[in-house]
Amino acid sequence: MISGGTDTMHDKLFMNTFSGTTLDWFISLLDGHITSFNQFSTLFIEQYIINQAPPPVTYDLFDVKQYQGEPLKDFLNRFGALVVKLHTKDEYMTVHAFRRGVLLGPFSDSLIRCRPKTFSEICHRAVAHIDAGEEVTEKCVSIGPV
Known about the structure:
By secondary structure, the chain is mainly alpha-helical. It folds into two domains: 9-51, no CATH class; 58-143, no CATH class. Helices cover 60% and strands 0% of the residues. It has helices at 9-15, 20-28, 37-48, 72-86, 91-101, 106-113, 119-143. The protein is elongated and about 75 Å long.
């Protein structure tokens, strides 16, 4: 606990939120070692900062791959969510990373034949491709077996 004063209800409530390794770490601190909440905050952050995921960088787009059996729509959403999170303006890299991440098939073939210049263009083309596939599926279902 923080030395230099009496235990407050807030101190006790805060300590009750600790469990497991965090509680073990807290208990291991020497009595009187912490003299202010700011000092405690700094120690706590230093202890647990290594557990934080590093902030994403533009090159992380190259790690996003379409899984076997994953619909194009789901891959587009996952990839697009990272693009939004990154706030990237590098269209060339974004387009290149998407083309490398999408599985081989009719849509990736279309990206090779007619290379998109922006991620927005990819999105429009992907939506059109998805809609066309859904329309074909609907027609096949409505016709039924021959």
